[in-house]
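Re: beginner question about structure tokens

> Can someone show what the tokenized structure looks like for a real chain? I only ever see the sequence side.

Sure, here's an example I had lying around. Input first:
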Amino acid sequence: MMMFVLIILVSAGTRLGVVHPLVMIAVAIPMVAAASVSLLLPVTSATVMSVLGKSHSGT
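And the corresponding structure tokens:
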């Protein structure tokens, strides 16, 4: 899916003659997404574990 979007962006950029900014954006979006996921994942898992631990100890 991401490659499909990237190909569309690159082809559209080639026609418009503004390949560089579009390529930069297309590369930056997945990188930012991956960074935010890697940052949020430990926090989310820690929260889930603490909630599960509390409910587990509660019973």
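Each token stands for a local structural state, so reading them left to right follows the chain. The chain has two helices and no strands.
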